[in-house]
Design a protein that fits this description.
This protein is mainly α and 255 residues long. It contains 9 helices and 2 strands; from the N terminus they run E-E-H-H-H-H-H-H-H-H-H. It has one domain. It is globular. Pfam families: HGSNAT_cat (PF07786).
Length: 255
């Protein structure tokens, strides 16, 4: 995670990493892996079939998804809030879009009736484009937009309104079943909140402080931050690894 030190250094100063943000992303990854492990255990019959849809697991999964989007919004602001770098932005966006399309293709081949047509990566990609409009906006404006985005689906439901295309907006009364679905509304809300916190933290000097508190010179910090710095790769490989391990377990230790 990077930011430009606009208060004390020129705008073209080299960016520094904020390890604490990467560590927060690592924590979100651990939450995601835990939820998917529970989901997979239920799918393979090691747990009751509805485990991931009962108790507090649905709320837990929403909190994890919201944390990813919030951190993505924070990252967008820290990387480009002071000076937009189109090459770096496009490189990152292309990677996220490519990964999202890979998830869509893989899940369609595996379960065509429940494939991921607009999951967390699709949502991050869309929010990363929409978020450009808020890079220079005051934090209060961005927060107001987040509140509106969060409330919009509820307003549509209450009034019986529906926008059926594209379904990715999240404003349709008829949603196509999917293994993972994080539409633009309301999921752009945590992304915008992350952007607003980025701006607030910049003016308060929080990011410079955090960058110095958790230094990469500490081996434990580097270790904790590593998964967060490679979150896209971890996201793509963790489910195949979990499923492969469970399949292997069923072969060597059949019930």
């Amino acid at each position: 995670m990077t930011f430009s030190q606009t208060k004390s250094m020129p705008r073209d100063a080299s960016a520094r990493r904020i390890a604490i943000v990467d560590i927060a992303r690592t924590a979100a990854l651990l939450g995601m892996i835990l939820f998917h492990l529970v989901f997979d255990l239920a799918m393979f019959g090691f747990l009751p079939a509805d485990t991931a849809r009962s108790a507090g697991w649905p709320l837990f999964s929403k909190l994890v998804a919201g944390s990813f989007l919030g951190l993505a919004g924070l990252s967008l602001y820290l990387a480009h809030g002071s000076r937009f770098r189109p090459r770096a932005y496009l490189k990152r966006l292309i990677r996220v879009v490519a990964a999202a399309l890979l998830v869509t293709a893989a899940t369609y081949l595996a379960q065509p009736d429940f494939y991921v047509y607009f999951g967390i990566l699709h949502s991050i990609a869309a929010a990363s484009v929409i978020g450009l409009a808020f890079l220079r906006a005051p934090a209060v404006v961005t927060l107001a937009a987040a509140v509106a985005a969060f409330a919009l689906p509820g307003i549509f439901d209450a009034r019986g309104w529906s926008i059926d295309w594209p379904l990715s907006l999240g404003l349709s009364q008829q949603i196509q079943p999917a293994m993972d679905f994080e539409p633009v509304f309301p999921w752009i809300a945590p992304f915008l909140i992350g952007m607003a916190l980025g701006r607030i933290g910049q003016y308060a000097g929080i990011w410079e402080t955090l960058a110095s508190v958790a230094s990469d010179e500490n081996r434990l910090v580097r270790l904790a931050a590593w998964p967060g710095r490679h979150s896209l790769a971890v996201y793509l490989v963790h489910q195949p690894i979990l499923i492969g391990l469970l399949q292997a377990w069923m072969l060597v230790a059949p019930a």
